[in-house]
Write a structure and sequence with these properties.
six-stranded mixed beta sheet, 15% strand, 17 helices, 2 domains, Rossmann fold, alpha/beta, four-stranded parallel beta sheet
Length: 352
């Protein structure tokens, strides 16, 4: 729930309705089952690990879905591989272009190399250097432009039109969502009595795939999304029932940093997701350190957001089987050092 101050602040940032896009049909549970046959041909299933120390601290059974163990260090690669497998020969011959803060771009670069397709990735000028270097190592042409993801996306869309390339949207792609949703199938198979799944939300493919799977298997499973309080555009769009755009905002967690809500994910979220929680950058930073200390897991900011949300919801989660999706682990040493500083400072305040 956003308090009045936060809502006023969001309005002060001039949130406005974004333009309506073409209407797409969301993938079905059967589509995700079909995607699994392709995804598992190229990518490993990731482990679902119990986290005893975190379980003790939170008063529930915590399991970590370790998507940071994928070849690119993030869950997105599942969607990239499945989408690339579905392109026509003509589309593959022309090449693809997309915009990303890093993990989606790595996904497309990885899949493009796998299928022999030219890939151009637009990323903001301040993009995570580890992710930019990884995209280039995978053979993609990387164009750095704009102050954030949404400015890079606009430049990318113009390039797609100018050159006739297949533009791959980071969210309005049913095949992308179907591919990503395969990790949710793995959760259900590994933990049939799961009761709650918490998923970070950037563009929304992860929480959408999770919602489709969980609500098909058992509508009683709660699917909870988490966004950064500094960039709550999906939360506000979900709450107000319309597509919104945030004129500015900030979170260090680039994997969940977007100023625009997109039509297809928002439609699925409204149908398949029970709640969205907002967490601060400080809470995310502390959770990064706690995942490393208590779970032996290296997570980037977006990957730690689910744990931050679990602390916010600890009373609701008590005694339940809870899966936290660790969406990625592509974090720089500089960001890790900063997170440790935040953790140390907050621990000192508590002890005082």
């Amino acid at each position: 729930m956003v308090h009045g101050g936060r809502l006023a602040e969001v309005r002060g940032r001039q949130v406005r309705e974004a333009g309506e896009g073409r209407r797409l049909e969301p993938p079905t549970f059967r589509d995700i089952l079909r995607a699994r046959a392709v995804v598992h041909r190229y990518l490993p299933a990731t482990p679902l690990l119990p986290a005893p120390l975190l379980s003790e601290r939170l008063g529930c059974q915590i399991y970590l879905k370790c998507e940071q163990m994928q070849p690119i260090g993030a869950f997105k690669v599942r969607g990239g591989v499945y989408l690339m497998s579905r392109l026509s020969e003509e589309e593959r011959a022309r090449g693809v272009v997309t915009a990303s803060t890093g993990n989606h771009g790595q996904s497309i670069a990885y899949a493009a190399r796998l299928f022999g397709v030219r890939a151009i990735i637009y990323a903001p000028e301040g993009a995570n250097p580890l992710k930019v270097a990884a995209m280039r190592r995978l053979g993609a042409e990387v164009v750095l432009t704009g102050r954030d993801f949404d400015e890079a996306r606009l430049a990318c869309e113009a390039h797609a039109v100018a050159e006739g390339l297949r533009y791959i949207h980071s969210a309005n792609e049913p095949d992308l969502i179907a591919g990503v949703g395969t990790y949710a199938l793995e959760i259900i198979e590994a933990l049939p009595d799961v009761e709650v799944v918490i998923v970070p939300i950037g563009a929304g493919s992860g929480v959408c795939g999770t919602g489709i799977v969980m609500k098909t298997v058992d509508p009683g499973i709660r699917v909870i999304g988490v966004q950064a309080a500094g960039m709550p555009v999906v939360y506000e769009s979900w709450r107000q029932g319309k597509l919104l755009e945030l004129r500015d905002g900030y979170t260090f967690a680039e994997g969940i940093a977007t100023r625009v809500a997109f039509e297809l994910p928002l439609r699925i979220i409204r149908e398949r997701v029970d709640d969205i929680v907002l967490v601060s950058d400080e809470e995310i930073a502390r959770s990064m350190v706690e995942l490393l200390e208590a779970g032996r897991v290296v997570a980037e900011g977006a990957g730690a957001a689910a744990l931050a949300a679990a602390y916010r919801l600890r009373d609701q989660l008590r005694g339940k089987n809870v899966v936290l999706v660790v969406s990625g682990g592509n974090v720089t040493l500089e960001t890790l050092r900063w997170a440790f500083d935040v953790f140390t400072a907050s621990s000192s305040e508590v002890s005082e």
